[in-house]
Structures are given as C-alpha cells and as structure tokens.
Amino acid sequence: MATARRDPLTLEVVELIGTVVARYYEEYEQAAAQHALTGAQARVLRLLSLEPLPMRRIARNLKCEPSNVTGIVDRLEARGLVERRPDPADRRVKLAAPTEKGLATAEQLRDSLDFAREPLAGLTAAERETLRDLLQRMVGESAA
Amino acid sequence: MATARRDPLTLEVVELIGTVVARYYEEYEQAAAQHALTGAQARVLRLLSLEPLPMRRIARNLKCEPSNVTGIVDRLEARGLVERRPDPADRRVKLAAPTEKGLATAEQLRDSLDFAREPLAGLTAAERETLRDLLQRMVGESAA
DNA sequence: TATTGTTATACTCTATAACTATA
DNA sequence: TATAGTTATAGAGTATAACAATA
Prior knowledge:
Two copies of one chain form a homodimer. By secondary structure, chain A is mostly helical. Helix content of chain A is 62%, strand content 8%. In chain A, strand 2 (82-86) and strand 3 (94-98) form a beta hairpin. In chain A, helix 2 crosses helix 4, helix 2 (39-50) packs across helix 5 (100-111) and helix 3 (55-62) crosses helix 4 (66-78). The first copy, chain A, has a domain at 27-116: Orthogonal Bundle (Arc Repressor Mutant, subunit A). Chain A binds a DNA duplex through residues 38-41, 54-56, 64-72, 75, 90-94.
C-alpha cells in the first residue's frame, strides 16, 4: 500500500481536496454571515448545541487558546444565543450553554449548509457509500 | 440521481467532509507557521508562485476586499518574499511577484503539505482513482 | 467617469503573559 | 501548588469608506 507520495494521481487527489476545502470553508463563512455570525462564533454555537461545555473544552475543540474563547462566548452571550452557567461540581468552571434562541439558530445554520449536500446529489447511493468508506479510511475510522 | 439530502448516508459523508476540512485547514496553518507565515500569507505566496498577479486579482482569488491585500503583500514584501512591479500596460496596476527567496519558500511549503498525502498512502492506486473521480464530480469537473 | 491601489477606521480572531478564584 | 477563567496587550485578517493616480 504505502508507496506513492508524489505520483500524479496522488497530487491530483490532493489538489481536489484543496478545492473541496476552499469551497466548504467559503460557504461555511457565508452561511454564518447570513445569521450575522463569524465563522468562529458559528463553530462554537454548533459545538454547544450538541452539549454544554466548559470554556476550556471549547478552546481545546477549536484548537485555540482559552483566552480567545472568553471573547467569542461574550459576543454570543451579548446576542442572547449562549449563556454561562456555574458547574455544581467545580466552582472554578463555567459551562457555556446555548439558549433556546441559540439552539434555533444552530439548527438553521445546520440546514443552510447545503454546500456539502448539494454536490453530493449528483452521486448515486452506491457512490456515496464508496466515498464514505474512502473518506473514513483517510480520516482514520475514528471520525466523530 | 438528485434525491437524498438528509438521509443518514449523505449526512455521514457531509460529516466526514467536515472532518477532512478541519484537519486540512489545521495542518495548512501549521505548515505555514513553520515558515513564520500566516495562512493568508502562505496562500498569497502560493498563488504568486504560479504567476505574478495584480493586487486586484489576488483579492478576487482570496475572496476578500482589495484593501486587505495591501497589508498581506506589505508583510510578504517586508520579508523579501514578494516584490511589487509596475505593469507596463496599465500604470494604475501593480503586479505582485515572488522573489527567488519567495519561490523557494513556496516550494518548501508545498512539500510540507504531507497532511493530504499521508492519509492517502493507505489507499491503493485503484482506490485513489475512484476517490479522484468522485471528488471531481462533486467539485464539478472544472477543478483547477 | 470608472478603475487600481492605497489609506483610515473599526471589529474579530489570535497568542502571550499576568491576574483571580477556586481546588 | 495547580487549574479554570479572565484581563491586558499586540499583531493579523476582515469589511467599509474615502482618497490619489491613471484610464
């Protein structure tokens, strides 16, 4: 298996992945902007819509410094999309949780992410399965 | 063909694409940082390594406002990676072009983008071909 | 008049370092 | 003493608006 690295085929696939990434990112930002959110704010809102989290955990997920999360959550909180709750188990911890409005926004956001579904519509179910399997092996099975 | 949108399979693929995008982006920034470049600077340098371009064209490619390009090119120029040249055909235009050092850096940058090659090593040539074809159809054939 | 690049301004994201309140 | 969250600071990317030079 592990041979090719700079062969034309591999480079072609790498190029295509770059194109997909650029398009995905662009449309994600655009979807966020439709709700007057930045990309980072939209990502945090999506994350919290799955489960309330301590600030520290948000930073780890976003792969940024905890100090940055303070501002992002501040802005989401100022817009009534998120709230900070105390953690009964540890008084140092603040749990960020979406409000009802925040949950509704997160759902709308999810729906507007047609970008990734739209192009898939051109593939048959069998092809989507193949794509899923190949991507899974690329990502390393342990995809979330 | 165009039926499924919210079926489990499609959503699974969308999720996987999101994972690939996050990983690609992260590793791109990391590769850029190894050369003390930001992601935006690395993207501009890569773009110019293909062909010198007017500031306006860079903005269009990055999908940002032209005023932002001024600063990014300023910083690349300050590091001796890029230079501004007059356009003989139109004296309003400034062509941004990589220096030799800039070209060398762009090439190193390209090489350090193993992130997208590494995971592909686990796929056979036939599988990479299949992946290429499916991605090409997603992207719409007209990939760069 | 329209276009190219720039400047000025304001906001967000980012990392670093220092601070506070808990543990 | 270690950890969670915050504040302060500085640099970079971003959009908007206004400007000079050129077309």
